[in-house]
Write a structure and sequence with these properties.
The chain is of the alpha+beta class. It has 4 helices and 4 strands, in the order E-H-E-H-H-E-H-E. The protein has 2 domains: about 60 residues, Alpha-Beta Plaits (2-Layer Sandwich), CATH 3.30.70; about 60 residues. A 4-stranded antiparallel β-sheet has the order 2-3-1-4, covered by helices on one side. Keywords: Membrane, Transmembrane, Transmembrane helix.
Length: about 150
């Protein structure tokens, strides 16, 4: 029988392993694995097959269209004409939209990394059936996130 638990990386994991060894389990029956965090690198262009929800193109296209329209409208009154003002508005809108989304995603990502920087560990314990309750109580007593039991047989 296996008892599986997840912990935050802290002194509680060491204390729970020591208590489980005091119950009578040997050191080779306990396995502790650290979990890797996903590295969310943002991409400028999303594809149809891979999207992380942080596209830079959507706001840039919207602001480019709006500024192009305003440039074409007011270009009839201004000196260089509607075509040049529409093109300048398009470039200005695309750049503005890109930089707004870039700085927004950058600040949002840094806040998320600070909040979600804890490291989780998985503990797998191979124990006999009569030791199951003591092991579970020990793990819950040392602030385990989750505890599960797998009976093989």
């Amino acid at each position: 029988m296996y008892v599986v638990a997840t912990f935050q990386h802290s002194k509680n994991i060491e204390m729970s392993i020591a208590d489980i060894e005091n119950i009578g389990l040997e050191n080779n029956k306990i396995l502790v694995l650290p979990l890797d965090k996903r590295n969310n690198k943002t991409k400028i262009f999303d594809s149809i097959y891979d999207s992380n929800g942080q596209s830079y193109v959507d706001l840039a296209a919207i602001l480019g269209m709006v500024f192009m329209l305003l440039g074409a409208i007011y270009g009839f009154v201004l000196e260089w004409g509607p075509i040049l003002w529409a093109l300048m508005g398009l470039v200005l809108g695309i750049l503005l939209g890109f930089f707004i989304r870039y700085f927004y995603n950058r600040s949002k990502y840094h806040v998320q990394v600070k909040v979600d920087s804890r490291t989780e560990l998985v503990v797998i314990i191979n124990c006999a059936e009569h030791q199951e309750e003591k092991v579970k109580e020990t793990l819950w007593g040392h602030v385990a996130f989750e505890v599960a039991i797998y009976r093989n047989g």
